[in-house]
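Write out a record, focusing on structure:
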Amino acid sequence: MATLADYGPEVRAEVKQVREVVAALHEQLIKWNLVVWTAGNVSQRLHTADLMVIKPSGLRYEYLTPSSMVVTDLDGNVVDGAEAPSSDTASHAYIYRHMPDVYGVVHTHSTYATAWAATGQDIPCGLTMMGDEFGGPVPVGPFRLIGSEAIGEGVVETLKKYPKSPAVLMQNHGPFTIGKDAEAAVKAAAMTEEVAHTMWAAKQLGDIIPISDEDIAKLNDRYTNVYGQH
């Protein structure tokens, strides 16, 4: 089995940098109230090798450091790290293998997003910010058991049907989000919880007013190509 010592200096330098990024981003999960105790995880894929960096399993967030992050290959085999990797490692690895443009994956059990997942409901697109961020509803994926790549399979098969969404709510489990890097995936996780909460509140007040597919497409195009700094 390969170890990090078998890789060149460019790969080892990227591993060091990505470990710092992934460790720091777990603090954002706490900041945005997306996790409880040790639940949830962030990973980022490397550009210089078919490797990823992911949170260790069951370690409390205040104890996470760059050196405690675990490096695995894209089959989930540990390449470097003293701790066992997250129980979701196989699913993260499956997503990276089957979605080559994805370089960041996040999983949480954030309250409102997980409530939608528990009822097997998509979050309907009733907000312009949902058109912006998700290009439509936040979809629900199938029920899958933890511990293998089955959850990753469900994430990939669902997002292929919703190619503009960076988020999927795995039924009876919780949200998974993707991005061009781990920070983008963490942002998607925070935005998923925000719209899940708002749309839940809207349902208490009355019927949600849907946004037309045509307007959703315009919103998403503007947000993708015009909004922000380019």
